[in-house]
């Protein structure tokens, strides 16, 4: 019997809480959605823009400048709410960025230097070109030349949120390239902030910060795996960095790199030990006795629970917990307090002629894609790296345009780079304009590529073996693909699946539905079988046993639903009416047929023709 219901709720829970569990799972999915996170930030930015140009703006500013802090006798230590967000909450954001960077450097896309070289060098190109464009407009002006760092950073949340709208209609290589580029871009931005946009450093506080960092490293070396000591000492590190003159958010990155990414549990022994504990719990369980009275049973399962929780590395636990708070709390708050471009009392004409506006806007909108594409072209043509699998240069151009979405990081740097409020507002206007245009243009460009793939009958099904939702994995695309992969279990292929080696990361199945492809001379039912064979082949090679089992369980609940959409549309677009009628006739005789019969051949189904594409992105 399957251990999950149709909605994903685990049947191990009592029936009275099944509804709660289903709602909890939906909440988890919602709060790990790149698209919805970007939507929240966009909504916050729109609210800030609207309020900034109404009569409520003064009260709005007054609220965010409210002082908060702690009293101790006659002493008061505090800062404004806006500074709490920009200096403390954003340090938490940088902590999450640091954890994601650490993951990529440890086991992710940045471990294989040849594989990572293309997005890393593309990120370098995407930093250099915007600087050049910005300085073309501002190099001769000492008051604005220091703002060259503003158009250099890509907003990973917004860029991937926009890409999420395309779902599985683009190859996973585009998502991996863009997210890895954004991570490398973040590393460069962190260095730029630390080196160029701090105040004159205090040697005393820098020494204190270095001492605290050494203590954190020693904690890692002596194998302290509890998160609490790291977070407490990390708070001391933040204060020392804050007092040193280097921007305090750097403390978040430093803390991320000392939090252990290994497990304190001996994983080789854990399987046998946990199996013994499960058997002990089974022997101790008394069905007729209330659980509260079963001391031996409770003690056994409590021991198992305590150890099992510690199997997951501290860095992974912290990253998973921070994700929803950062992307649905901290970043929307940052947008609300920093996207407030008010035109009241401003000389709009002066803003529109300010070289800061054009340096920032064109740096992001033109400099980013130009630098990314030129560097990528040079790296590929020099054979130092190759394009990601199934990705062409048009895909690369679309991803490069999305690299010009620089919302969060760019606004953050603008606040550090300029002291004049007019220049800050002008830079923000350039950032918002460029990010909006880059987002729309990048989306449309990739959508056109998706439509071209649809006309060729090509569909992309992406999946991941990593249970922890991560930007590079495309969590929503993975769920969409899993919902479409049906009927993949075959006794003849079990030995091949069991023999496959386990490997994490993202993999992709490309299904050719076009002329000369799977549909040549076959029924729609044949497509199901062909897809099943291709899915099993790829999952077997990747060693994704758990995904195989999960997909099979889901298929049992959705046995009559199609694994592909738009098959009939592909046939119609081929212009071969005879082949369409022939396939649908055979499909009517096929017990696994999906279209509902020949009489529906002329009905529009509204599908987009791509396998694995749903609007949930």
TrEMBL record:
Protein name: Na(+)/H(+) antiporter NhaA
Family indicated by similarity: Belongs to the NhaA Na(+)/H(+) (TC 2.A.33) antiporter family.
Localization in the cell: Cell inner membrane; Cell membrane
GO MF annotation list: sodium:proton antiporter activity
InterPro entries linked: Na/H_antiporter_dom_sf (IPR023171), NhaA (IPR004670)
Location of region: Disordered: 553-617
Keyword list, A-Z: Antiport, Cell membrane, Ion transport, Membrane, Sodium, Sodium transport, Transmembrane, Transmembrane helix, Transport
Keyword Lyase: no
Biased composition (Basic and acidic residues): 569-589
UniProt record, GO biological process: regulation of pH
Task of the protein: Na(+)/H(+) antiporter that extrudes sodium in exchange for external protons.
Reactions this protein catalyses: Na(+)(in) + 2 H(+)(out) = Na(+)(out) + 2 H(+)(in)
TM spans (from-to): 37-56, 68-96, 116-136, 148-167, 173-196, 203-224, 236-259, 325-344, 356-380, 392-417, 429-448
